[in-house]
Amino acid sequence: MQRANPLLTRLQTVLPKIAENAPLAEELRQAPQESIDLLKQVGLHKAFLPKAYGGYEISLPEFGDCIVALAGACASTAWAFSLLCTHNHQIGLFPKQAQDDMWKDDPDALASSSIAPFGKYLEADGGVMFTGDMRWSSGCDHAQWALCGFLRDNAEGKKDHCFALIPATDYTIDDDWQAAAMKGSGTKTLVIRDKFVPEHRIQKAKDMMEGKSGGFGLYPYSKIFYAPYRPYFASGFSAISLGIAERMLAVFKEATQGRIRAYTGAKVGTATPALLRIAESSHQVMAARAFLEKTWEDHAEYAEAHRYPDQAKLAEWRTNQAYVVKMCIEAVDRLFSSMGASHWYLDKEAQRLFRDSHVTGAHAYTDYDVCAQIFGREVMGLEPDPSLL
């Protein structure tokens, strides 16, 4: 869908350099500082920053288009930076005091995360003492804060999934990201030992999904903050998958048009198998984009109307995203499987796209085996299965 998007226009000016830096990102196992600086220079990190701190509060469709484009240049950088951006939406639902802690003196400050409830805590006067080896914190080398998950006992004797907002001065980074794909995302472990987190920097995940968090209503004219956090938090995964798939279409076309089979001299680019593969993958990727854009527009309409989605709509949004990822992975696989052995060399872009594509379907939020069960139960009128994430 064509839409005015000044941020995307600015972003496109720095994408060639970020693409050039993609091999370096893999070598460093984190996004190069130059790439991060370029993204900050065009203001991508302000996409979901509250306007009160100089942010843009752009719509989810506008943001999604930016991440698709960024992923086509470097999926690892897109993975890390999209999360650094989407966390701003989540923190915009925290109490004003927590937002001031993070942004009052440094509106460019970013937060990485480890939102799975790995953290341990002890109750303390005015907050908790937090400890944990918090894994999967993408982009943490470029963040000044972190959102960390833990399970906290409540008055009813149950446990609430909560998030603690913790400054980088309270943790160290364990450089343990040795991965086969998304190598440049810098998805490392945060090591936290007995650090105090005040109550205003702790929020329940459930409250942030239902308009009950400490920051609810802070921005009455906002078109993005009357919305549950999770669809915004997870929006980058499917956008990155789409960006990879769209880039793979271009790489396949370029590599195949002039390809000659070594033993027979046959022209691969005009042979029926190549034509069938590029045609089907092109249709699949176009369908994925249309489906994802429709879902993004749905998110935006709800947020602008200050309308919270019900359980059925949330299930639809989540599983739509996972199905888009499934389609994009299939499209990439169809192309890469016929590109020949030379594209398995590590200096070839196609093998990186193939590897990174599969990671987009490995996140808990985009695992289609899980999502198909969630949506199937919803369609059949069954109660949600709490064992499904």
From TrEMBL:
Is-annotated flag, keyword Oxidoreductase?
yes
List each copy of the Acyl-CoA dehydrogenase C-terminal domain by range: 236-367
Q: Does the keyword Cell inner membrane apply?
A: no
Q: Which GO terms describe its molecular function?
A: 4-hydroxyphenylacetate 3-monooxygenase activity
Keywords associated with the record: Oxidoreductase
- The UniProt entry's coiled-coil ranges are none
SUPFAM superfamilies, per this entry?
A: Acyl-CoA dehydrogenase C-terminal domain-like (SSF47203), Acyl-CoA dehydrogenase NM domain-like (SSF56645)
EC identifiers of the protein: 1.14.14.9
Instruction: State the name under which the record lists this protein.
Output: p-hydroxyphenylacetate 3-hydroxylase oxygenase component
